[in-house]
Design brief:
mainly alpha, Four Helix Bundle (Hemerythrin (Met), subunit A), 8 helices, about 0% strand
């Protein structure tokens, strides 16, 4: 009986901490949950971007501000570079925690959160310039409403990501030997990379895509 009990317990022990969270396919349930959440957020941002693109020609036809004239490509290019750099530091942070290198993990994860805060500061500057210098607000034009809702929600997601990463950092610092640390960092990284990819799409469609001409704007407004 004792041999049978020992043989029965061995497979459970061999799974380790991660086995307790595995699905029938061997994928960690926490990772499945994060991927499902990201999938729902993709639909959310796709809807916001679609609304912006649909109402862009209507805004021009109604005499609203031309995005190319009021948006600063220089500032947003810097913001895009910051977020792309933060994806690199996030990868380095995950690699460091997998090697159990707490010192480099601390450097790279804090760098990622710091770059996120820099992005939020740059976005706050852009919003201030639009409101103060250009007079663009949500009530004044269709462009103002769709632009601030779309980019504002993305900024909110960046802020959530920064809080998430700092929470993971605090947890790893308090429990450096926890077997859950690697997965915690990986899950935070999945969300962070999603936020970065969303900004690439927003930057391309809003700041780089050519404007509709006046004739097309009138056609879409009908």
């Amino acid at each position: 009986m004792s041999q049978l009990s020992t043989a029965t317990n061995q497979p459970a022990a061999s799974h380790g901490a991660h086995g307790a969270h595995a699905t029938a396919l061997g994928v960690d349930t926490r990772k499945v949950g994060v991927w499902a959440f990201i999938g729902s957020e993709v639909l959310f941002f796709a809807a916001l971007i679609t609304v912006y693109l649909i109402y862009k020609p209507r805004n021009l036809a109604a005499g609203g501000p031309d995005p190319k004239e009021v948006l600063g490509i220089g500032v947003t290019s810097v913001l895009a570079t910051i977020l792309l750099a933060s994806s690199l530091t996030m990868v380095l942070a995950l690699a460091a925690i997998r090697r159990k290198d707490i010192r480099l993990f601390r450097i790279w994860l804090l760098a990622t959160a710091g770059l996120g805060l820099c992005f939020l500061g740059g976005q706050a500057y852009e919003f201030t310039e639009l409101v103060v210098a250009e007079g663009v607000t949500m009530p004044t034009s269709i462009f103002g409403m769709t632009f601030f809702i779309l980019t504002g929600f993305h900024g909110t997601h960046v802020a959530i990501g920064v809080i998430w990463l700092l929470s993971v950092f605090t947890k790893v610092m308090r429990y450096p030997n926890s077997p859950e640390n690697e997965m915690d960092v990986e899950l935070g990284g999945l969300y962070w990379h999603f936020v970065d990819l969303v900004w690439v799409g927003i930057f391309t469609l809003i700041y780089l895509m050519p404007d509709f001409n006046a004739a097309a704007a009138v056609l879409f407004a009908r």
